[in-house]
Amino acid sequence: MTPQQIIMTQPDDWHLHLRDGEMLGTVLPYTARQFARAIVMPNLKPPVTTVKQATEYAQRIRAALAQRSAEQNIAFDPLMTLYLTDHTSADEIQRARDSEVVQALKLYPAGATTNSESGVTDLNHCTKALEAMQKNAMVLCVHGEVTHQDVDVFDREAVFIDQVLIPLRHRFPELRIVFEHITTRQAADYVQSASGPIAATITPQHLLYNRNALFQGGIRPHYYCLPVLKREVHRQALLAAASSGSPKFFLGTDSAPHERATKETACGCAGCFSAPYALELYAQAFASAGALDRLEAFASFHGPDFYRLPRNTRKIKLSRTAQKISSPIAAEGGFLVPLGFGEQLDWRFEGFA
Ligand code: NCD
Ligand code: ZN
User: Fold this and answer.
1) Beta strands in 281-339 (DSSP E)
2) Domains of the chain, residue spans
3) What is the pLDDT of residues 48-85, one digit of tens each?
4) Candidates 77, 254, 305, 346; catalytic one
């Protein structure tokens, strides 16, 4: 029988785009309301490549939070990442390791996605940095897609596994890797069967939708993210992996806000803004698999265990209450359209239990 409420350990979001400036102030409260911590992506313009920049960015996040939620009982901890480039030095990795601020490095293959122009052009340029990361047990978060124009956009993740990830892990078998926002059966199978320190995050959109969502009666830019939604067999494999109880899979929303006009245009930005209803969306997915009893471990245990951080202790509550995702959110003189806009949810986040 479906429970009427879920009380669970407060979750963390292990992959999040918070942006900066005014947009940061707008989107941060949605995440801070549900999650205790988040791995904050470094793809700002210019990207966050040094510990100094990450420390300053973390201060801006804390300041934005203090301003927005002065009277609320919110404690949110941003876990910062550095953007790996062809020029990241072993010294910078050491500084990251010694800092209290930086938890991981992020690998964007150059040109793979939003603001990835400074990404890595060839992993052979990163040998020193990767050696230092392996030695210091620093986590590498990986955007797992090849970028060659001659590889079909729906195949780029599977090709990345064979051409980049397997050789990388062969060279650095102890490197701690999070394969971010996986979207295919191949990625789920690879992570599940691989030995050594590798795990994966899964977004709500890849658990809930297949690529038909992009073309339902017309082109639907608010379902467009990278890596792009795949076929139904892949969605089913991801849902099975997320709800399997395996500690290798955990929550990472990849919530990536873009103002509506930059998505509803001739060349729209990639990214789904899932923060406003993130937990409800995951609950919806797990309920569809009859696996609500496994949501807590996916959302709240496997992530901190992999990152070697303590699990949260506070409890939050979801109630089985129908609600419709109905209001766009004012931002930057325009609007943000939340993931699932116009759809019905069966669950509602009720705050701390
Ligand atoms: C992200 C963004 O907008 O920053 N977009 C996305 O579709 N996921 C970048 C990324 O993580 O790929
Ligand atoms: Zn992302």
Assistant:
1) 315-319, 323-324, 329-331, 334-336
2) 11-311
3) 999 999 999 999 999 999 987 665 667 899 999 999 99
4) 254
- In the 8-state DSSP scheme, what is residue 221? G
Helix (H, G, I), strand (E, B) or coil at 176: strand
| C-alpha 10 to ligand 2 mean position (Å) | 22
**pLDDT tens digits, 1-15:** 789 999 999 999 999
Atom of ligand 1 nearest to the CA of 108: 12
Determine whether the shortest distance from the Cβ of 274 to ligand 1 is under 6 A. Answer: no
Q: Which fold has domain 11-311?
A: TIM Barrel (3.20.20)
CA 137 to chain centre: 21
Nearest ligand atom owner, CA of 19:
1
3-class DSSP assignment, residue 93: helix
Contact between 235 and 223 under an 8 Å Cβ cutoff? The reply is: no
Residues 6 or more apart whose CB falls under 8 angstroms from that of 120 comprise 84, 85, 86, 107, 108, 109, 110, 126
Q: Mutate which of 14, 205, 226 to test ligand 1's pocket (most atoms within 8 Å of Cβ)?
A: 226
Distance (angstroms) between ligand 2 centre and the Cα of 254 equals 4
**d(CA 220, ligand 1 centre) in Å:** 17
254 catalytic? Reply is yes
